Amino acid sequence: MNWLIALPELALSLCGLAIMMAGVFAPKKHAFQLSSMLSLGALLGVGGLVLVSPTGLGFGGLFIADAFSRFAQLLILAGAGLAIILSLDFNEREEGLARFEFPILILFASSGMMIMVGATNLMTLYLGLELQSLALYVVAAFARDSLKSSEAGLKYFVLGSLASGILLYGMTLTYGFSGSTDFIHIARALVTSTPSVGLVIGMVFVLVGIVFKIAAVPFHMWSPDVYEGAPTSVTALFGSAPKVAAMAMLIRVMAWPFGHLFVQWQLLIEIIAIASLILGALAPLVQTNIKRLMAYSSIGHVGYALMGLAAGNGNGISAMLVYLATYIFMTLGAFGIIIAMRRQGRSVEKITDLAGLGRHHPGLAIAMTIFMLSMAGVPPLSGFFGKLYVFLAAIQSGLWLLAVIGVITSVIGAYYYLRIVKLMYFDAPEAAFDHPAPSLSFVVALTGAVTLLFILVAGPVTTAAQAAAMALLG
Amino acid sequence: MIFAQIFFYLFAAILIVSSVMVVTSRNPVHSVLFLILCFFNAAALFLIAGAEFLAFILIIVYVGAVAVLFLFVVMMLDIDFSELRAGVQRYAPIGAVVGIILLLELVMAVGGWKIAPAAAGLRMTPMPFGISNTDAIGRILYTQYAFLFETSSVVLMVAMIGAIVLTHRERTRSKSQNIARQNARQPADALTMMDVPIGVGVKQLGILRPDAARTDPALTAPGPKVTLPEGDAVAVTHKPGAH
């Protein structure tokens, strides 16, 4: 048994334990900042470990480290790290959020996400997913004295448990009909025989459970409420790392053990993608709360990313990975600006509150313009490349309907992204926001730079994504 | 062999009857007690099947911890169960539809069941000879599945952290004595001198308590049974000839 295969995950969990001890014994006033800084260090160190640790299948087929899991894990670590930086200032200013357990829970959640993307056994997959979900339920309800946050946590918990139940049900059916929980054996069982009805049902249940976690239509109901109710620093996390983890898990499960059921699941993925695209384009038009708007917008983005999976080949999967890579940076940047929306110490969340940002905070307004245009898919920003690749992959696989709907919805989506830009520059200005904290400016500047200059690194990122897809498909 | 079968049907019958009682009995305490009976019978079935480890885990974990916890919740918390059941009639059709769908799926799953050729042989020797059930589970749990075992322990720890984060509060209402504060206290902090004209009661002037923030409903309510809390030293001192 080669424990080094899972070295990054183990190291991250152990760091979580050590930082918890540090947080308990540190003076109360500094415990939150201290554990946040240590957690950032841990995420950075583990990021390095991901790059250097050996690859291969380990633990008797329970877990794998390959180019695909590395790609996803680095994105997860980046998302979690940026979310912690965003929380540094926000949690200090909000009532009761600056507790040292916050970054530690995010560390454990990241550890769960890393296990999810490296899982090659249904049991590993489930445990990783539960580790992630459990930590996220808690951070959603972290502002325990706020009614909204508690409601968000409870809603997320109840519906998430339901999804886990559905997923488990699918796993038991899969196990019962294929005789194994191991991805290799499930795939082998599907090669040799025509799939039994039970196995297809099991696959559908597994698919539903995971689609619930990525909040794609028709399993998206929880996401706007949770996004709105959770503290904004937590919402920023929800929009980034867990999405990547669940997406990567979905890709691996669909492409590997259920790869031979492609005919059966392609149509499902297409329907889910189309429904998500349409809802993600239409629902934001009537929103007034910016966090809800971001929730619906992320549903739309999930739809675009799923187009890559529906294509069902290496190009599609690598396009999806590039899409996710561009998506988390622009989302975190946009959330950085939403966190900066604060007047006289109170955060405001209405979309119209952004009016006049261009006059009061030109830097933030430019960054927000970059993120919004990128989400709308305007070249040469990063979002354009993500969309371009998934459209190309869909067209190459002959999914014309999907591609056409994608183009139409991205035009509709451009309306509300551009409306925000118009609000910031041309509408009657509201009172100025408080001066943003340095940590916020840092995240906004960094993600803005990544989004703006993605064209410079598009080549290497695409190559890495292709290598990841190849590693998965073999 | 015949005894094993007799006991199997006995325990299975009790299990089914008591699980029906869990759902149907009106008194929630009875429900929990039937649940415990269920667990015991299921454990007995496990014993008959030769899975003594699972049997004892079921009793230790489910009866010892989970069911007793339920019992505590039911008996300690003031939950109106009749109110919780109020919607049963209304939601019964939807529940029935979902149940039927699940039943159909189960039937389909069982109908499509194909027993692997090797399964019949494996059934005869469920465990290596000379190794007990517990031993056999321990051998793979700590070797082959060590990674999963450790991951589940981390999951449990996150659950613990979560429970503490969401519920633990620093006690701020403790009655400890703060001597420094006591000594620093001045008469002016606690007493207010009031000028009240002769013949006008304090009630008409509305100066029962000097500090509005410390107004106690029991004190502002008119009536003879007004008692001042001990040690609080808040009292309106009415001294007509104070100056």
Automatic annotation (TrEMBL), chain A:
Q: Where are the transmembrane segments?
A: 6-26, 38-65, 71-90, 102-119, 156-177, 197-222, 234-255, 267-286, 293-311, 317-341, 362-382, 388-418, 439-461
Q: Name one GO molecular function term.
A: NADH dehydrogenase (ubiquinone) activity
Coiled-coil residues are: none
Domain NADH:quinone oxidoreductase/Mrp antiporter transmembrane, residue spans: 119-413
Q: Name a biological process GO annotation.
A: ATP synthesis coupled electron transport
Q: Which family does it belong to?
A: Belongs to the complex I subunit 2 family.
> How does the annotation summarize its subunit structure?
NDH-1 is composed of 14 different subunits. Subunits NuoA, H, J, K, L, M, N constitute the membrane sector of the complex.
Instruction: Please report the name of this protein according to its UniProt entry.
Output: NADH-quinone oxidoreductase subunit N
Q: What is the lineage of its organism?
A: Bacteria, Pseudomonadati, Pseudomonadota, Alphaproteobacteria, Acetobacterales
